[in-house]
Amino acid sequence: MNLQRMIVLSSALLLAACQGASPSADAQDADTATPAPVAETQAPDPALLRAQAAAADFSGQLRAALQQSMQSGGPVAAVDVCHTQAPGIADEVMRQHHVRLGRVALPGRNRNPGQAAQDWQLETLQQFQQAVAAGEPAAAQLRVQRDGLPDGVSLRMMRGIATEPPCLACHGSAVAAPVQAAIRAHYPDDAATGFEVGDLRGALWVEVPAGQP
């Protein structure tokens, strides 16, 4: 698989993870002898919808930027996009959706020092790590918190980022020399390599402020 396809697939996988952030409803059994009463339709959760939309928007815009950079400059240019453009994309998405949003890495496995997990993010990552160590899929890790939040926050959402095969181009154990050089140029203290497929690599988080439209 060439590096361009690997980057495109990686971005698509990240987007798919963000879009799948809402928990699914249990299917109803259609073979009951007595028809079940029709459940009242629950009103959508505006805060959760905003969190999901913001996560999907961020992932989609980052994917588009990565695809364009791959076409013009290859995988080394894609590393530069993550360094220079991703923060601006996040800022614009936060402004449009009136949320706070970001990505965090596992403790001690940071590439960008600004993505070190803190407080509730660290606690949630540790819960994700325990679940994955017990055999649960990394991509299935999800936390939506509505209670016990600080003043001014109505909802927090966090979803695990799994290491997929395309991720190994920049995060695996055999990163190509030109890509290694580009990573070191931007992140001299990088510790985000050596992952294997299926590993939990970090998480995407969204925090929805209270009282926003």
Describe this structure in words.
Mean pLDDT is 81; it is low at 1-40. The protein has 213 residues and is an alpha+beta fold. Strands 1-4-3-2 form a four-stranded antiparallel sheet, sandwiched between helices. The N and C termini lie far apart (44 Å). It has one domain. The protein is globular, with a radius of gyration of 19 Å. The protein has helices spanning 3-19, 46-84, 86-97, 119-133, 168-171, 177-186; strands spanning 100-105, 142-145, 153-162, 200-209. The chain has six helices and four strands, in the order αααβαββααβ.
Topology:
Elements: H1 3-19, H2 46-84, H3 86-97, E1 100-105, H4 119-133, E2 142-145, E3 153-162, H5 168-171, H6 177-186, E4 200-209
Helix pairs in contact: 1-2, 2-3, 2-6
What Rg do the Cα atoms give?
Answer: 19 Å
Write out the strand line-up for the largest beta sheet, numbering strands in chain order.
Answer: 1-4-3-2
Q: Provide mean pLDDT, rounded.
A: 81
Major beta sheet summary:
4 strands, antiparallel
How many E-type strands? Answer: 4
Tally the structural domains.
1
Beta strand %: 5-15%
Query: What is the percent of helical residues?
Result: 40-55%
Distance between the termini: 44 Å
- The backbone outline, from C-alpha atoms, is globular
The count of helical stretches stands at 6
Segments where pLDDT lies below 50 for 5+ residues?
1-40
**Estimated structural class:** alpha+beta
What's the order of the H and E elements? HHHEHEEHHE
